[in-house]
Write a structure and sequence with these properties.
Elements: E1 5-14, E2 17-27, E3 32-36, H1 43-49, E4 60-68, E5 71-72, H2 80-86, E6 87-90, H3 101-111, H4 117-130, H5 134-137, H6 150-162, E7 168-172, H7 180-193, E8 198-202, H8 206-212, E9 215-220, E10 223-229, H9 230-235, H10 240-246
Helix pairs in contact: 3-4, 3-6, 4-6
Length: about 250
C-alpha cells in the first residue's frame, strides 16, 4: 500500500532559525504514528506543516516536499481550506466554541454547505460515537460545549474534526492536561479510529506513545533520530540517544 503522506528532505525555518533538518519520512495509511522527543525538537512544527498551519506564522518557511496521496500540499493550486478539512488537527488545549454541543459539531459541516437538520443530526451522532462521547452527552446536546469536563471537551474537539470527514487526524499532545480516565477513553477511541483514518500523534509522554502507536519516530533537536515499528523503537532502538530518552536518562 502506498503511504498516505511522504516527506522528502524537509527543512523548516522560523526566519533564519532552522528547526527541522533534512527530514524524510513515510506515514502509512490506517496506522497511528507517534512522533515524540524533548522540547524544541520540532515535533509540533512537523505536525503543523502537514496541513499548512505554519502558513499562519509570517516568519515560517520550508523547503523540501510534503506529499498527500502523491500530490504536493505546497503546490500553488492547492486549496488550503480543503487541505485542512482532509488533514484535521486536534490541539493540546481543548477549544470548544461558546455554543451548544450539537452546534460545536455541526459548525464545520454547516460551513461547507450541509443544511439539512436530518443530515446534521446524523453527522453529530456519528462523530460523537466515533469520539466515544455520544453516550455521555446524547441527552444534553443543547447545553454549552464549554460546560463539559476537560476530557469531554477534548473528545468533543476530536468529534468536531471527524464531522468534516478528514482522511488524516493530527493530534498534538491532546491528553497532556487530562486525568488518566479521560486519557484512556481518548486512547481507546484512537485505536478504533485508525481503521478509518491515518493518525499522527505527538503523545504527551513516552508511555502513551508505547501504548497506542503502530510506528514511532524519535526526533532530537530537529533531526529524525530513529524511526520504525513500535517494537523496533521501544524494545530494540538502534540509536543510544533513543534508548536514553525512553528510559528517562534525559528529556
Amino acid at each position: 500500500m502506498e503511504p498516505k503522506i511522504v516527506l522528502n528532505n524537509v527543512n523548516f525555518y522560523y526566519d533564519k532559525k532552522q528547526v527541522i533538518y533534512n527530514l524524510s519520512l513515510k506515514i502509512p495509511s490506517n496506522e497511528i504514528m507517534a512522533i515524540f522527543g524533548p522540547a524544541n525538537s520540532g515535533v509540533t512544527t512537523l505536525l503543523r506543516s502537514l496541513n499548512r498551519l505554519c502558513d499562519l506564522t509570517p516568519s515560517a518557511w520550508m523547503n523540501g516536499q510534503i506529499l498527500l496521496d502523491g500530490q504536493s500540499i505546497y503546490a500553488d493550486d492547492v486549496n488550503v481550506t480543503e487541505l485542512r478539512r482532509r488533514v484535521g488537527m486536534v490541539f493540546e488545549v481543548p477549544t470548544p466554541l461558546p455554543i451548544s454541543i450539537f452546534e460545536n459539531i455541526a459548525y464545520g459541516p454547516r460551513l461547507i454547505g450541509k443544511k439539512s437538520k436530518k443530515e446534521l443530526s446524523h453527522i453529530v451522532e456519528d462523530s460523537l460515537r466515533k469520539a466515544a462521547l455520544w453516550d455521555e452527552v446524547k441527552d444534553r446536546l443543547s447545553i454549552s460545549g464549554m460546560s463539559l469536563s476537560g476530557g469531554q471537551q477534548q473528545r468533543m474537539c476530536i468529534a468536531r474534526v471527524l464531522a468534516l470527514q478528514p482522511e488524516v487526524i493530527l493530534i498534538d499532545r491532546a491528553c497532556s492536561g487530562l486525568d488518566p480516565i479521560s486519557t484512556a477513553k481518548i486512547e481507546e477511541s484512537l485505536m478504533q479510529l485508525k481503521e478509518q483514518f491515518t493518525i499522527v500523534i505527538a503523545p504527551h509522554n513516552v508511555q502513551q506513545a508505547g501504548r497506542i502507536c503502530d510506528r514511532a519516530v524519535f526526533m532530537l533537536m530537529g533531526h529524525l533520530t530513529e524511526e520504525g515499528t513500535k517494537a523496533e523503537v521501544f524494545m530494540n532502538p538502534k540509536d543510544q540517544r533513543t534508548s536514553d530518552y525512553i528510559t528517562g536518562k534525559f528529556g
